[in-house]
Amino acid sequence: MTYRLGVDVGGTFTDILLINEDTGETYRGKTSSTPQDQSVGVLRGIEQVCRAAGVSLAEVEEVLHGTTVATNAILEKKGARVGLVTTRGFRQVLQIARSFVPGGLAGWIIWPKPEPLAALEDTVEVTERMAADGSVVTELDEDDVRAQLRTLKDQGVEALSISFINAYANDAHERRVEEIAAEELPGLPISRSSAVLPELREYERTLTTVANAYVQGQVSRYVNNLQSQLGSSGLDSTLSILRSDGGLVSAQVAAENPVSLLLSGPAGGVTGAVWVAEQAGFSDLLTFDMGGTSTDVALVQGLSPRVGRETTVGDLTVRATSVDVRTVGAGGGSIAHVPPLTQALRVGPQSAGAVPGPAAYGAGGAEPTVTDADVVLGYLPTQLAGGEITLDEEAARAAVQTIADATGLPSAEAAAAGIYDIVNENIFGALKLVSTQQGFDPRDFALIAFGGAGPLHANALGVLTGAWPVIIPPSPGVLCAYGDATTSHRDESVRTLIRRFSEITDAELSGMLEELASSAKRSLLESGLAEEDLTLTYAVDLRYHGQGFEIPVAVEAGSLGEGVLGTLRSAFNAEHERLFSFLLDNEHELVTARATASGPRPNLAATTLEEGGPDPSGAAREEAHRLWVGGSQVEAVVYDRDKLKAGNVIPGPAVIAEMDSTTLVLPDHAATVHPSGSLLIRPLEHTDTPEA
């Protein structure tokens, strides 16, 4: 027997999924996260799940990990003090930035401009210059470089970033400065723009390089510490880290290029959602992952998540390939409050987190949260995480009552219903960002909900979006860990080459893409994968000549060769018209080309439930249960999910409980159990329900 472990660390819980690669059997673990040292919670969860499965740690061959270490370093402003070396005359590249201010009308009046990750006093200029075609304009002054590096050393920088103008076209000067820095600043982490992001636009390239240096120390220490802890605990396994684009890389590569990990956690959820949706027979879906701190949403077409060229975390937007995930501060731990000025109920973005957590956790939290509201409404059972956490209903009610008192609502239930509705609207707003605002009708998609809190809000989000069915996967609370365990290794290679279509031939473009593919394959081959098992995909960023932005267009491997430019022209025009409803007569222009190499997808056996017919009574609990729905108490049935069988139909109102999550089925809706284990919730008129 061989086993692989998926590990996902969230703001509140650490989720572990152990998979038997021969049988497809899974074992789940969920434990509280340990923000002070994430590896503590990871190891505790691994030992817990292996003990429950009766599997020794030595039998685990792979540990696949989605991490938020880089994300948290950015959000909490706890990265390294970064020194920046740039071309003379460009010292203020991060301060000048781009003339974009977020927010609505007059937002610039109150918007606090974030401080650059490399301070101006820690930025130095050196004499050198490359032209856009890669030719040397000014030779590198090595004496100047040494003097400037010694200045940074005296100022106590903890990491170094190097970003020269046009280094994407010729990286010789950056490489030489890296060699000199290794002599002058031994042991200091170094990030070079021509390695991190070899693309045009000096601001985005510099910002991404500095961000890489900012988090590199923390990520490297965490990865090395985790590898050491895994080894000392008896786990002789390979550690791989999930990238923001949903692919895996070795721990060493992740430590060297941590800017590619900023959306590592959310990417795992989307990958897991695609796997589950495929088993249930759906290919177009909206995903929403609601945890304890935030909710991440994404759109998937044809089982392929939409991938963007930018990654945004807090105020920081870097140029790094990632699944197009949007995040909103709406989770189970989001705190409800009533600002004195407006007297209007608000929910989030502040969160109670893992410590002290919601009032219902009984760990010292007193502020009302979404979880407390769910408890008051009767949507949550009294135990979570398989009994590890017992909920305190009275504490939850007392916390929510403060909202009722502040707003004048007649009861704690009314206040809790308001909290529930508002957090659903917040999530709905995020879903619109990836659907209607991108030109997609949510009614054309299924909605898949996961995370510990997602299934409680899924049915209500289905009503808001019109996306049916609502899919609740097996083990929704640990789906991100499942995504980590069911994805493949991936790496990419990028080159900027600004050419109008009249200036490049089909053969030249095809040859360049094949060169990039060879580069992208290198790290995967070094990690032990066989070349025949690798899959190559290609994409180019195109624009009309004169435009200031590009649109990524995929290139099929079979399209390389004669006619590839014509194929790209047609694909770009179709996407431009979809996005903007018009076309231009300007000549097309290629800006950036990239090739991506992917390893084989794990061959895991799919789970098939025993057929049980439509009657779900065998899974029903005997105790009476009441929910607050539509302004009044209603009788509901509680079901144990692990007792449900394929074909069972659960009419609402109902609560379906399991180890790591709870699903709410609203009145006038029903959940059907798919043979793969997923629950498919639809309006009652579209569902065949068992007779009473």
Automatic annotation (TrEMBL):
**Which superkingdom is the protein from?**
Bacteria
- Occurrences of domain Hydantoinase A/oxoprolinase (ranges): 205-487
> Domain Acetophenone carboxylase-like C-terminal, which positions?
508-673
For this record, an example GO cellular component is: cytosol
Q: Name one Pfam family in it.
A: Hydantoinase_A
Which InterPro entries would you find in this protein's record? Answer: ACX-like_C, ATPase_NBD, Hydant_A_N, Hydantoinase_A, Oxoprolinase-like
An annotated GO BP: glutathione metabolic process
What's the name of the protein?
A: 5-oxoprolinase
A GO molecular function annotation here is:
5-oxoprolinase (ATP-hydrolyzing) activity
Domain Hydantoinase/oxoprolinase N-terminal, which positions?
4-184
Provide the residue span(s) of the region labelled Disordered. 594-621
